[in-house]
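Why do we bother with holo predictions? Because pocket geometry can differ from the apo form. Keep that in mind while you read this record for iron/sulfur cluster.
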Amino acid sequence: MQKNILLTGVGGQGTVLASKLLAAAALSKGYEVTSAETIGMAQKGGSVFSHLRVGEGLASPMIPKGGADLLLAFEPAEAVRMLGYLKPEGHLVVNSAPVQPVTAALSGIGYTGQEMLDYLRAHSPRLTIVDGRQAAAKLTPKALNVVMLGAALACGALDFLSREDMLAAIRSKVKPQYVAINEQALDHAAGQ
Amino acid sequence: MHKEYLMGNEAMGLAALAAGVRVVAGYPGTPSTEVLETIARHNEAKRIHVEWSTNEKAGLEVAAGAALSGARALVTMKQVGLNVATDPLMSLAYIGVKGGMVVLVADDPGPISSQTEQDTRHFASYAKLPCFNPSGVAESYEMLQEAFAFSEKYSTPVLFNPTTRVDHGYATISVKDEEEYYICQPEGFRRDPSKWVIFPRLSYQAHLKLEKRNAGLTQVLSAYPRNEVLPGGGDSRRGIATHGISFAYTREVLAEQGEKAPRALKVATPFPFPEELAVSFLQGLEEVLCIEELDPVIERELTYICGKYHLPVKIRGKLTGDVRQAGENTRDSVAADIAAFMGWEVPTERELPAPPLQIQRPPVLCAGCPHRASFYAVKVAMQGQKCVFCGDIGCYTLGNAMPLDMVDTCLCMGAGVNMAQGIGAVTPGVKCFAFVGDSTFFAAALTGAVNGVYNQADLTLVILDNSTTAMTGHQPHPGTGRTMMGAQVEPVSITAALQGLGVKHVVTLDPLNLQAAVAAVRETAALPGVKAIIFKSPCIALEKPRGMAAVDGEKCIGCKKCIRSIGCPALTAAGGKVAIDPAQCTGCGLCTGLCPTGAISVTEGGR
Ligand code: SF4
Ligand code: SF4
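The structure, written out:
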């Protein structure tokens, strides 16, 4: 088994924790994991990514273009930016809520996220759209990362992991007082 | 031994522990920071002295003192940090050490978080010091321990030079249990002026010795198993030479080719170069492609070796235009470079039409960041006056972004103060400002401040004090009073430091109190000489949010003055009005006073 998972989003959205949770779940099942992530200036509201590779005999932590089985995108424009990494038949799970960069707000180019979602609909056959805004209103904005993981589980993109594996990973990495809300977040997509 | 899933920097931290390190110093800098933090986290017994030094030069000197005294010592920094520490390093190379000493310098191809794409491998040959270049997380763990032993064996400090993708890559690796750790028991400093006091005559003799040692090391390092030749099965006329993370990419690309793979040379010690091994690699080849990040170090070495041994091999790489000269290598760039060189089919990318909109996403100051308020206060206060704003290194370099646009220069750590001085000397009628963060102030601006005072500069020093080293992940510094040994000590006062240096006028205030801040800037900037404003407000990442802003949709007329003035990323344009992103807003209140219709209000607390 070999799975290449690319997480992408905007610095501050919690992609790093999502990638850590995925890695912890895969490791607990005895899989080998290598990964790499953005650390540094880009974390301040720039485009960020985590490459996560699960399986045997991988020398490098970076996924080649066209090599990702799953693209887990926390933001529509970032999904479009990284789409070239997804296998043509790969799963794309995307949050529909855009994060407007200040430059876009200033220039008034009218970025709504919809234009990106239309593009993604046209170019990725296995697409799952998560309504991140609604999830944030129901839970908390901080739970977006686990909502996204739940959606990836629900659409079958993480077939080597179960809900229980993921929950165990959450328990091991998240402060006890936040476990309950994260469990709700994990099941949010399945309940839609 | 047991298995652990570790970040490269964590693996290197654990390797230093396994090698029995006793003193660890450094200055935070991406991508090197987590090495020292890992060691501090594993130091419950306080057997190791761990410190964030005020800067890299201080750190290197602390480590040197320990290593002269027989202890194993480590100093960590990023590549540009080595520029600051070069002075002690160059001399230490001549003097040598007793205990093993590793100077860990992390390079940043891209660059992703740095001012330059400088290549530490050059520093190795310049300083005449052996250099180790790991190609992955697992290798970095083993190699760092070997580097300590090597350093001790040859009584020389050594450079250890990972790059971002090794530092910040993760893998499951075998690590030692504590019982397996090497135990270093230093005897302490033993007086020997003929050895530890550098003098021209001593330097002359040491220079001869260094050259002789390094000449001999090419053979020793040719036998070092991490310098290796992968035989390859296919094309016997072509070969690939590479290093570091590019070796990991190369190996993966070649593995896909199976039998067709050419011979490959992996260089783990770029200096002294494993010359004899390289000769055996070059034997019989017609062409070699060098795949390197940063500078063409291997390419030049192989070209030299071909000349020296009369080998008719064409060496290709950055110098011949076969490999891109700048930027980091990727798995894809390496695959494409190798395919083009070998005459294989170049892998094609999936063709996708252009996206509907080009969304640029440069990094910005966080929502609620007090630096935004500081910059805005100065901007408002100085409106209409001719000003130059010298920036510096840290989060606040992002004050350059629109709409704040408050950074006219940024060079290196602490440069802003004296640059402001130089600009003021030749630009008539200009008010010069130098913005510097608290950590950078201690690291590199103290001498600049004295220089300004002594040489009669006219400038306003604005210290952005958020009580942490925020850009690199919130490390403590002298002004915080927290040490890496877990102690709370008397913080060093920035005000007292400035006054001690001769800055007479020093005011401190909260930049989020905009009116008072603007008034203080006006007043201070009008004074002669060097004067200082300390804008003190904690980094939002360390604080609970004050509250949350809301826009009254009835009152908002969509003029976007709020966004155009301060560009807080929590202010978003939606349907002709402005809305607040609740995931980002901290309720700092800066935007409330800007709205002409009073549409924005902040509710304190309640999150
Ligand atoms: S209060 Fe205004 S300026 Fe402060 S974080 Fe919220 S939106 Fe940004
Ligand atoms: S400044 Fe006030 S009125 Fe103008 S866009 Fe912002 S919230 Fe609306």
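Residues 15-28 of chain A form the longest helix (14 residues).
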